[in-house]
Every structure is written in structure tokens, then in C-alpha cells.
Amino acid sequence: xxxxxxxxxxxxxxxxxxxxxxxxxxxxxxxxxxxxxxxxxxxxxxxxxxxxxxxxxxxxxxxxxxxxxxxxxxxxxxxxxxxxxxxxxxxxxxxxxxxxxxxxxxxxxxxxxxxxxxxxxxxxxxxxxxxxxxxxxxxxxxxxxxxxxxxxxxxxxxxxxxxxxxxxxxxxxxxxxxxxxxxxxxxxxxxxxxxxxxxxxxxxxxxxxxxxxxxxxxxx
Length: 220
Description:
By secondary structure, this protein is an alpha+beta fold. It contains nine helices and ten strands.
């Protein structure tokens, strides 16, 4: 087994904030909206809700200069109301997700049920170069009309001592250091800048429930 990832830079640090300022490819709305999940098994649901709400706000406030002060109260999608939508109910079974969590296919199905285009990539069929290119291109849309959801091994990334399969969001890319800004939906974890190769390695792990390797989704 490879060593757990240690080389991460906390987002809420002087260096982490400086890196954000240096990164044209970041999504301010997603960062402002970000909240950790409330239900243990709803990391994929919360990640989806955040991407969908950031897209909604981005259509109203496409310019970053307007995004720092725009109101966040009326976003339509939240973890707690996702199963109020008929689209969600048709796509997913609440009891199954509440018990087992979700696979990449189930999250893809959820997003498509809400009318969003999704490109789902299992990383055993991809490369770190392809991941870097696709993810950084999506994150360069500052109106959040595209989002990036990653499915990775939380333990291998050194974020949690017990959780393995996990969904979270990317909110920025810092080209000089080749790091992505990971907004981690799990409780009491560190939002951090992580090297593209390290994140790719932690996605390149097998999900026995899905029978496939993990990966990433470009939404929008």
C-alpha cells in the first residue's frame, strides 16, 4: 500500500489564501456556498447540491466582482432538501443512499435527472494529464457553470482515519504548484491544496460496491 498523502497545504492558511489569489482558475461562489455534509452517507448528495446551487447563482452573478457580496440565502439545492425533488426521487432510492452511500453511477444518474450534462471518468481508463486538463478547464469558468466532483479514498489522502470511498468538490487550480483546491465534505476535515498526482492516485482506487475504480465527474 502506498503511503498516505501528507503534502497538503491548508486552504485556511496564509499560504493557502495566497495560492487562491494567484489562481485565476477558481470558483468563488462554490467556496462561499461550501458546507460540510450532515448525513454520514450523503457526501455525494451534498457535493451535487453544492455544484447545482453554484451553477444557479453563477447565472445570476457571472462576474467575480459581483460574487463576493451576492446573497446566498435563496439557493435552491441543499443536502436537506434534495430528496424533496421528484427528479431525485426518480433517480435514487433514499433508503439505499442513507444506508450505503452512493456510487459514481448513482451520482451521475442524479445529476442527469436534474438536467445537467455529466462526463464521468474512471481513472483506471484515464491519466493524470487528462484529469488535470479537464478539471482545470472546468474550474476556469468563474461563473461555476461547470463543476468538478471527485470520488477518492479519503484514508489514502490522509484526511480521515476510517473513511475510504468519499465524494468532494474541487474549487480551484494553482498552476505553479500543480495543486487542486479540495473542499472536503466530510466532518472536521481540512480543505486543502493537494497535488494533482496525489489526488489522482487516491482516485485510482477500487470501489468494491460499484465494481469499478473511482474517478471524477465534470458537471455542466
